[in-house]
Structure formats: C-alpha cells, structure tokens
C-alpha cells in the first residue's frame, strides 16, 4: 500500500492560498480554495471540523497554527497519521526558521519557504524534517554565504539528527525530569481519571559524537539485573523514545543508549496510569441567596508532604457570564475577576504541603432571566501549579554516562519538577 | 532570522513585465537574482509570468545555488505551458546532474522528474541512470523517488530502460534512507501496475527489517507500511517479524507506532498460540493509549483506528475505558469519536461510571455532542440487558431537566429500548407523556406516537393524546403521518370504541384523499381494506409481535473490517471505507510539445477544475457513495450526473492531451448495421453524428459516422471525452476528412480505458464534445455499452465458477427480469453471447417449469489491471419472451449496466 500527498498548501484564515507546492500535478489551488470556502460557509469555524475531509475526489488534511492553515491534498490512500504528523513537523520547521509562523513571516521569507518545501517532501512523500540540520544547508538571507553548500552527512546518515564536528569548550548536559499530572474529578468528588505524563527533557552541549547511557530506577531493568527493588523502583506504563535511542537495544536489555542531538530535545516520555491522590484539592460551594446574588465558598488543600512547596498556583473558578460586581476575600494569595475568561482567578505564589486556604466571593446577577431553560456551560475548575524537587512517580536518574572518543569529562545536571497538566475538577 | 522578501511583492504596475525582462537580462548578478525573486513572487500571488520563460531559463546557468533553485521552481510551474522552450533547460539539467556538488546533482534529478513534458522525459533517462548509482546516498535517495515520478509519466520507458531492476537493487543499498525511498517508490509503482513488480521475499524482508532500525522516522513508516502486506510463511515467520517490529511501539512518532500496530495485527492473524497473542495485546495497549494524548488531529486518526481495532480484538483496551472520557477542551471531533469507543467498551463492569460520564456530557452546550451522548445511553441500554434499567433512570433524570432537544433525543432512544425489551418499562410512559407538547422534531414526534399506539391499552387517554396530533395531520412530515396512521389503527383495534372509530375515519380519509404521498396513501388503503374485510386478520397483521432489535454498534461487515485493518493509519481507516471508494488516480496532464498552440490558452498551467457536479463537503466527511455503505442492499446505478454543460470544454481541454488534432484522413469505413444517431442534425445546425462503441480483436473502437447537412464544407474535426466511469478516452487522432455539404464519412476511433476516470457510482454515460473549424463546440451524451468491454479472457472453468459463486456473499447477487429479452435457440444464444465475450459455463433444465437455466461468465477490465468478474444465471422459457437474469459479482453496483448489456444482446 502506498500513498503520497498531491500538494502542500499554506493558507490564510480565509482559506486563500499564500504559498503552495505542487508535488504531483493532480490538484489545483482553485480546488483547495473552493473546498475551504465551502467548509467555512458550512461550519463557520473550520478548526472545529474533522481534520480529514473528502471533497470531490480529493482528501484534505489540515492543521491550524496562528493565522495560517497548513494543508495537504491527496488523491491516494495515503497514511493519514503520517501526513498529519508531518504537517505538525512542518510547523516546527517554520517556527525554527522564522521564530514565529504566521502569514507575515511566510510572505517575508517566501524564497526559503519554497526551498524548504522542496527538501522536506518529494513527490508527496515526507523526506526530512530535522530543522536543525536543515538550517545547515538551507539558510535565510542573513546567514547565507556564497560558498556552495553540500548536504550535511546527517541527512542520509543512520544518525540523521546530529552533525559531526561539533565543538564546545565546556561539555555539559542538563536533564530536566518534568512530570505533569492530568486529573479529572467528577462533581461528586470522585477521581474519574488520573495519569502522569513524564518527560526527560535534555539540553546537550557536547563535543563530537558522544555515546550516552542513561540509568533509571526502572523496576523491569533492576529486576533483570537481580538487584533489590524494595520501594525504590518504579513501573512505567508506556515509554516513548526520541529517535536517537536504540529501540532494539532497549527491547533487548532495557538499556537506554543513544547519540544525542545537539541542543534541546525530549529524550523520552512516559506515562503512569496509577491512581494518584490529587496534589491540590479544591472544593467549591455555590449558593444562590436570591435571584440576583450568588456566593462562592472555596477551599483549597495541598495533599503532598510538608517538605515540598507548590509555586505559582492558579485556581480558575468558572463564574456565570453575566455576573457583576464581585467582592472577594482570601485567606492567602490574591483573586481577580477575569470576565474575558468567565472566571475568577485565585493566585497563590507559594503553597506548602499539608495546608488549607479559603476564598469567599460574592457576585451579583441580573434579576431577569430567559424563560426558556437552555443548558449553561459547565466548565470545570482548573488548577495550575509547579512543585520543584518532586516527582509523583518517584522516578530517579541513577546515572548518565557520556563517552566520547576524545575522552573529555562532561557534567550532567539533573532537576526534577512536577506540574499540573489537564487538571480539572467538575463543579456541581 | 526573519527575512524581508515581502518587498518583492510590491509592483510598479506600469510595464511590469518589460521591466522584469530587462532586469533578468542584466549583467549584474544581484539585479538578476532580485528579478527572479520578483518573478517567483508574482507567480506566488497567481500572476501569469510564463511569457518570461526564455529570460528566466537563461539565468539557470549559475553558480549561485539559491538562484538555481528559484529557476528550477519556475520551470516546474511553467514548463508545461512552454513545452517547446522547456527543451532549452535540458542541457543545464544534464550538466547539473554531473556537478561535483551532490546537492546540485540531486536537485537536478529531482526537478527534472517534476517537469511533466514528454520531450524532457527522454533526456531524463541517462542522468537518472547515473544518479541511481551515485556515490552519495543523498543523490541515490532522490533518484529512487524519481523512478516513481518517471513511471507516472511514462511507465513503458521505465520498464524498457530497466529502471525497475535498478530500483529493486536499491533495497539492498547500504544506506537506510535509500532503502526506505526505494520501498516507497516500488510500492507506488506496484499500485498502478498489473504485473507483480514489488514482492517482499524472505531475502528482502531481512533487508527491510535491518533498515527499519536505522532510517528516519518517515522512512520507517514507508517500510512498515510495505511490511504490512507481507504474507508470512507460517506462525514462526510471523512471530519473527512481530519480534523485530515490536520495539517500534516505543517510537516517539505516532505514525511509526500506528504502522507498527498494523504490522503486528496483520501477523497476529497467523499466530495461533494464545499466550503469544495475549502477550502482544498487552504490549499494544499502552502505546495505543498514549496516542490519545497526541495532537488533536492525530488523536482523531488514532481514535478512528482504535474503533476498528476494538471491533476485532476487544480485549486489548477492555480495561482502559477511562482514557476515552472526554476532556472539557477536547475539540468536538475528538469528543464524538471518544463517545463511539466508550459505547464499544462499555460493559457491566464499568457501566456505572460510563453512565455518569454520559450524563455529564448531556448537559454540555454543543447540541450535536449532547444528542450523541443521549443516544449513547440508549445504545448501552440495548447492548447490556443488565444495565438497561440504570440507563432508563439516567434518561428520566435528563428528561426532567426539560431541555428541549435532550427530551426529544431521549424519547427517540426510549422507543428503541421499548423495542428491545418489550413489556418491561411501560411504567415510565406517563412521564414521557408529560412532554408531549414540547416535541417539534419529526423523529421524536414519530417515536412518541409509536409508543402511544403500541401501548394504547395501558394509556387511559391514548385517544386524547393522539387527537392532539391529528389537528395538524396534513402539515406533518411524512414520517409522523405514517406513525399517526398506524397508531390510530392500533388504538382502534385495541379499543374499538366510538372515539377511536371517529378518529380512524378522519385519518383514513385524510391519508387516502388529501395526500400526495404514495407510501402514506398505500398504507392507508391496505389498512382500510383489512379493517373492512377482516378485522381479526387486521389484528394479526398490525398487532403482530415484532422482532426485537439488537445493538448495532459493532456494525462493520467482517470482510470490510479485514480490509480496513490491513489499511490501518491510512485514509481508508479514517473513513471506514475501502480505498477504491475514494481513491481517484488522475493522470496529470502530460503536455505533448507538438500540440496545437490554440488549445494551450485554456490550459491554465495544466491545472483544471473539474466541472463534474461537486458533492457537498461530505456531510459525514467521508467519501459519499462508497459501495460498502451501511445498507448493504445492491446499489442502483444512479442516473448520469447531469454535468453543467457550459463548463465542459474547459474541463475537456485540460485533460491528458487526449484532445487530438485531425490528421490526414484514411479510409477506414466500418461495415455492419447502420449506427444509431447520437447527435441529430436538428441539434447540430445540420451536422449529424451516428456512432456506437464496439469491440474488435480485443480493442475498443468508437465507430462514428459524420454527415454534413449544412450549406458549407466542414473540416478540422476533433473529439474529446469527459471523465467517465471507465475512463474511456481517444487513443489516437480522429480521422475525418473535410466534409463537403451533403457528404458523410465514417471512421473507427481507437479508444483506451482508464485515462480519465470519474468518481462516483458507476454510470454508462459518456459525455462527448465534438468540434470543427466552422461550428461551435457540440456536446452530447452517448451510452457505454458494457458488451463492448468484456474481456477475451473472461471464460471460467466450471470448478472456478462454482467456487467463486460460493465465495461471494449473497448480498452481491442481483437479479432482474428482462421482459422483452428472448432466447429462441439456446445454442445460437450461447454463440451470440460468446461473440461478446460472455462465455458459456453450464446449463440445466428446470423440470417443473421446463425453463432452461444457463450459467455464463464474463470479465470487465477495471482500474490498475484488475478486472471485475460477472457470474451470470439466465432463466428463460426457450422461444417465449422474458428472461430472468441473475448476476453475482464483487461489484454489484455494476449490475444495472450489466443487465442493460444482456438485454441488448438478447434482442
């Protein structure tokens, strides 16, 4: 089974073609504009429409970013997952090149855009999307030199993400373990869904072609090595690695070995679906005292150990869109009414473990209401926070070995942090 | 590092083109480069700058890579419109393909492949041959794809020059990216060829698995997609592949993961060990779950695929239902798909939690989502007997909220629940009746009326309730009228008192005399007749016990599901439709340089908008008219789409160089019976055309006769065909001499298939345009007689015939009575049919009716070298008119065309 895209389009918000590249000569710009105007006419907002649409013999797949739509048209049964992901990568490449991808930056750089479109896809088949390596041989005006460039070895190498000959005076690696907690609590206070998505974010400043090996307190690995696993080891549900990690090797003996790209990248992501106790618990009571006055009593509790502290806590309490004249009192932090988000934002700079804080707020409502009972929006309470030096999973980096043939010593720096991901508590 | 290219878009209006021309010819490099940028900018905003062709091409010989790329880009866009001038670029291309810099070598070969001009294609061969064996892998990987490009333009050339062998050799290349691109190119070529070109053997399998570990993420997807079609020898072979592919589940790229899942699922079919299967299921679950946290667009594709996977292997995600719970900010298209999967995974174990979720969703603001959530509750009730009561409870809670559309939706699903569990939950009818006046949607009204009629004996005031609907009877939609009619009859049969009797009089009168709807009228007459002749029989009919309905949430046909699972991650798996229902391979226009100048104007750089009637942006966002639409009933070939005529020529002219100029006339007068008139002189201002498609020696011809009844001579005849089901197009020039007034000429125009295919249901319509130098363009339609298409090799052995017949599902059998067809002599008929390549297989006699039954077979060519076979059963009484024709075929939607052919042949 094979399938390729026919063309790639960059469109403005009205669906007009800004720049396009025809790969196979079987669709036209007119076709995509016609399709898009129909879509806008029918849906109003195309971003709420299915991202894969069939029209008049052609399949359109699109992704929106800022004021630009990136779209492919295909006449074949192409790999939809691959195409849509490719569109996201195209956005990443443009972002790398122009800092921001928007209508103006595309116009300002149309020459480079054409060059990139020629390199990243050939005859409708995705080819190469490593922005960093691309920028070694496709340069914007400011960096362009008159010498003729050659394709970097990396483009076709087995190590396609790193060029040779990188030099640093000081060889360093920064490794951030970032866990984000996703939680959904039902209106009856029951935790419906909770999971932790972790990422090992690396920034490498290393010379040459360094061979790295990472050790974690992964239970499967430790057990395989016959070490005691009491309490310290953790189970990771699903691990995803950056393409630099040798997957066959990992499958074989759970060793994480790789030659890293230069600069920042996500080495691995993992997921844990074990039930976690909500780190910050919020209870809100809403009382309607009369037709025109409503009172909120909100309690927030931190349910982690006292030695940790959550910072930059922001609790977003949804408020009816026609509420006015708020009066708010808090036992800690400050609260502001944000009518544009239809919410009251309660911000607490520092929230140590095992503490309770309170908020009371009162709003006025218009006394006249519509007769017809229409459903109201029920947005959940949302919470944002960061807890440094703490991970929910208990993951630990046991070692990070870096070996390069020149034999330099590199310094690894490791940091841990937990943040709130999609942290939602439904209100009654 | 933002650029300032926008300055190139500003124009000076006055004399822009001459100014650019001058700048392009400037001796200063910078000025030249700026001018080319301005030209490209003009091209970008859609201005025609093709007249600068020569000047731009003159800038091609440059050391400056950026400038070279821009000129190449210009060439890709305009070479088609300047085929004669495009040849000017060839020398530089050939030179660049030998440049010491691999970037330039690759660029040259990549660009040449994008220039779809025949003359250039020939010059491409030598550079391509060299580049396929280049030292630099970057050049080889580009050349590999170029072979697929060339194949698309000129397949013969590729085969003759041995490029396919070289391409196959590249599978053993030392560089993984070259291997991956060679795989992609071979897979594409295979798709459009009838011959076996690319087959994975145990040797290549090893190479592919090795390259899989080392190539880029996109290359991994090419290789995995190719692997999924590999048929393993046995369970061990399959296990080996799975073992090598499983590590890909850990890849950060979702497309790699999904394609790996596809390969594993395919190979699992061969593995019999329950342990291995259980283990693999366990391994696939976490990666599938992780896909649900990808970008929303990817989530959408993943969810559509998971929907298929859980239909085949429900246990993979049986414990993971929670990950499909909707988040408040999920886009609506993701929420809708999650709901579908939640219904599929709902079980007695998790139903409580699932219902809580559905209830939550039913109070959100997006009306479509809310409706779907309410329906989901109903579907769970029908699926899980033990949960039905809980579901009813939730529905009643929702009705109490009194949101209009929630109430209506709830009533619709409760009707289904009543049908699934008769005589169980009638106690809630009273609550439903309270909401009678708020119903304003036909489906909800019809459902409520059905409930009242069905349970009339338990509703004290059923007559009053129905009466309240009767006042508006004439204005109600048909759906509601039908239900009202039936409900009134049920009420009367159950409670034959005075009021229902009056009511039934009113309804029957209304339905038989006041309405134009034949369904309603017929149903009313049937009831009337039943009631007046035998009320007991009426009871038996109207109040008969109805079959209980069942859950339809796993509704894909198993063979379709198989096909879709083999297509995981592709568009087919997103649409839940087989690829052939939406893939339209359109050969892009290859411009022949010797073509008449005059017609190039309409060319619009080779891109033309189809004038075929445009489907609405598909309401289901899938392709319409797929042969596997949920209702498996044989699809009647729809009448010809009435294309908007005025646009036709614009469309026609843009197509595949099939517009052929008249060359010297030759005498090729066809003999045989007179041709039917397809375009009368009255319509053609005196020009009359007769014609018919015929088959001769395995070749299709359009046998045509031109008659000039005008006052002056006519010459310069040309013919063109619109896109059609069989992709018929002229294979050579139309050879008609100039016609003096009152003369006529005949010709045989050779035709080819699959040149310009139209999408949509099969149709025999052939739209033709004919032109001459003296008259306007004439459009008319002819029919494609299927009998001209049957292949010489359509004969089937008895055994094969029987096997094929059995293998096809019954839904693929269609039959039709041909009242005017006649078999007067069986042997003569067999001879006649076999002359049209419909071959005799077997014959038997029906004893009781002394009818003859003939079994025949035939094949019609189909896209990409395949063919559609027809297994035929003709039943007739020899000598008397009337033949029953039954046909079984993998493509029942073609049956109507087939019947027409048989009907024509048996006259």
Automatic annotation (TrEMBL), chain A:
**Highest taxon, organism lineage:** Eukaryota
Keywords (alphabetical) are: Cytoplasmic vesicle, Membrane, Protein transport, Transport
A single cellular component GO annotation: clathrin adaptor complex
| Family matches, as InterPro entries | Adaptor_comp_med_subunit, AP2_Mu_C_sf, AP_mu_sigma_su, Clathrin_mu, Clathrin_mu_CS, Longin-like_dom_sf, MHD
CDD domains named in the record: AP-1_Mu1_Cterm, AP1_Mu_N
An annotated GO BP: intracellular protein transport
Which Pfam families does the UniProt record give?
Adap_comp_sub, Clat_adaptor_s
Q: Where in the cell is it found?
A: Cytoplasmic vesicle, Clathrin-coated vesicle membrane
| Domain MHD, chain residue ranges per copy | 170-426
Q: Does the keyword Membrane apply?
A: yes
Look up keyword Transport and say if it applies.
yes
Q: Which PANTHER family match?
A: AP COMPLEX SUBUNIT MU
Please give the subunit comment from the record.
Adaptor protein complex 1 (AP-1) is a heterotetramer composed of two large adaptins (gamma-type subunit and beta-type subunit), a medium adaptin (mu-type subunit) and a small adaptin (sigma-type subunit).
**Which family is this protein grouped under?**
Belongs to the adaptor complexes medium subunit family.
Q: Quote the protein name from its UniProt record.
A: MHD domain-containing protein
Organism of origin: Adiantum capillus-veneris (Maidenhair fern)
TrEMBL record, chain B:
Q: One Pfam family name from the record?
A: Alpha_adaptinC2
Please list the residue ranges annotated as the Clathrin adaptor alpha/beta/gamma-adaptin appendage Ig-like subdomain domain. Answer: 671-781
Q: Which UniProt keywords apply?
A: Cytoplasmic vesicle, Golgi apparatus, Membrane, Protein transport, Transport
Sorted alphabetically, the Gene Ontology BP terms of this entry are: intracellular protein transport; vesicle-mediated transport
Q: How does it sit in the membrane?
A: Peripheral membrane protein
- From start to end residue, where is composition biased (Low complexity)? 623-643
Superkingdom, taxonomy of origin: Eukaryota
Protein transport among keywords: yes
Q: Quote the Gene3D superfamilies the UniProt record gives.
A: 2.60.40.1150, Leucine-rich Repeat Variant, TATA-Binding Protein
Subunit-structure text: Adaptor protein complexes are heterotetramers composed of two large adaptins (beta-type subunit and alpha-type or delta-type or epsilon-type or gamma-type subunit), a medium adaptin (mu-type subunit) and a small adaptin (sigma-type subunit).
Functional note? Subunit of clathrin-associated adaptor protein complex that plays a role in protein sorting in the late-Golgi/trans-Golgi network (TGN) and/or endosomes. The AP complexes mediate both the recruitment of clathrin to membranes and the recognition of sorting signals within the cytosolic tails of transmembrane cargo molecules.
Question: Could you say which protein family the record assigns here?
Answer: Belongs to the adaptor complexes large subunit family.
Q: What is the name listed in the Swiss-Prot or TrEMBL entry for this protein?
A: Beta-adaptin-like protein
In its UniProt entry, the species of origin is given as Adiantum capillus-veneris
